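TL;DR need structure tokens for one chain.
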Amino acid sequence: MRLRVDELAARSGLSVDTVRFYQSKGLLGQPEREGRIAWYSNAHLEQLERVRALKERGFTLDFIRRLLTGELDPIDAALAAAVSAPLPGEDAEGTELMSREQLAAHTGVSETLLEAIARTGLLFSDAGETGYTSADADAVRAGLKLLEAGLPLSELLDLARRHDTAMTAIAEQAVDVFVRFVRDPLRASADDDSAAERIVESFNAMLPATAALVAHHFRRRLLQIARARMEREGVEGLEAPRASS
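>> reply
TL;DR here they are.
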């Protein structure tokens, strides 16, 4: 298949200016030229789809260029591919990403409220105001249930901020542990092909395991504290009132 630049842009969902910008940054291979006409192929379309997928996962254009041009070692290239894959709960194929406007329409929550939630860090997209998934929509609906149960919006947003702060610290530590005890030792391995395969297996096993462990711990701790609060307040409520002097 041969495509002009405008046809390539239309098929990739990008503007012509964006396609040319990516090419100037080394993210897109040079086209075949016949005189003043530049012809692009399926390979170029696949390159643009890869750039978009990586960009939606939050990678910088410079990192994407290094990945596509083979500047990264096989270990980091394999790990980047694993990190850019759909998250647990997302469809492996056909996942339609939503803008904030589309997320608002999908959930019935105003964009103003979604923006307020995004500022807490609880709801975010690596691609800015685009790149929201069905899992994000489910999270928004869960927040709505809390509001409907009577939790004030101000308290919910405060909880979201504190949760994001705590989870960010835990995530940073978890990534650091993975780098020091899995990625770095594998990078030192002489067999790059085997190491690349093993790091993807390790990442794909550790990501859901870590998420499940954190979710399980929070759920158990939440119930424990709730029981303790109920027991404490129950005892206090049974105490005989003091006699007035």
